[in-house]
């Protein structure tokens, strides 16, 4: 017969995992920890959890069933990752990304770049309802432009992610926004309007911080000879505004709520077609032929989708930008997600997650205690279950009764779920959100985490509002 876990038993796998991950990153592997050691650390943590499960009469079959359910829930994310890899390859080969960088270098300067990146990512994410799609389109271009300007890549990624998650949170098209309101039992637009109370201060502080950081980028930007880089891009690629049609189509499809997989597949294929039309000299160079033909074009485009693509220019700074790993480059991230799902699934199956959450709820005192417990649980689930959807759904179901008992309206819960569940997923390298963004933006989570200001501030803002009882809605209020 299955026994209930004690809090100490539930925390043992978590403590072991956190300690091992910290050792991997800080003492042994550094930035290379995501190449395999962290993945195996998650599996070791899952093994510890499984041993505790066996001790408490949880069958191996039950654990594997929950793991299988968790992995199934990430199938869409895994396929999206593969298609983003293919898209990045053809968008490089076709000159789409270099063209974005070319025009971006002429418009943006280092002083305003970071704040402008927040605004641009916010608008695209608001229109599409997807932080992931924003990272995979304008995010890639902004990373390229910022690195060419000599700006720290962690700052650039932090700005992109801050804007992307701001737009995602307040967009009625967003799946997480709809999910949070549905789980809490709140009307969608009531949820969005109420969420603005904490979201607007958070994004305002974020913009101020990036504006301040922008002033310190001026000297590094002046040292970059933009004209030489522009010339190098034009030497290597046929730069034309016609290439911007492809990202325009992809963004339009996403705004129209086309399935992301369909939009990304079309973007990948159009990228390959535009490579044949606009960059035949690059295909000829890769195929080592004098004149392009169908066989050569097919082979080069297919390789750009599936494997490494490196296009060299006369500028070393640009050479670091014009590389893509294709679909194969995403396999390490997929490995990380699968390992995280194993750990989260076994933790769920043995009752560890429920034991920890129940303990938090027992110590919650007053209204603030319920808010603080919800925030803590959402962040905990992002760090253990490694999926932002579960970090919204499970705490939402757990704490709904507690909010009702405290006479708190449902929008209090839905806002808290978004302020802590949605935005913090990107802060964990092994979470689907963190793994995806770090791979797409080619910046390690540890590098952008200190600059993902909006994502760091949002859960703190909801706690500040709860502690000082700012705008907290009671059921008895008229």
**Estimated share of beta-strand residues:** under 5%
State the end-to-end CA separation: 50 Å
Number of domains: 2
Helical content class: over 70%
Largest sheet: 2 strands, antiparallel
Number of helices: 25
Succession of helices and strands: HHHHHHHHHHHHHHHHEHEHHHHHHHH
Radius of gyration: 23 Å
What's the β-strand tally?
A: 2
Low-confidence stretches: 219-224
Give the strand order, joined by hyphens, for the main sheet: 1-2
Give the averaged pLDDT, no decimals.
Answer: 86
What does the overall shape look like? Answer: globular
Q: Which structural class fits the helix and strand makeup? A: mainly alpha
In short:
This protein has 478 residues and is mainly α. It is built from 25 helices and two strands. It has helices spanning 7-28, 37-55, 60-73, 75-93, 96-107, 110-128, 131-148, 153-170, 175-184, 188-215, 218-222, 226-236, 245-255, 260-278, 280-287, 294-306, 316-319, 331-349, 352-363, 366-384, 388-405, 410-422, 432-440, 445-448, 453-467, and strands spanning 309-310, 323-324.
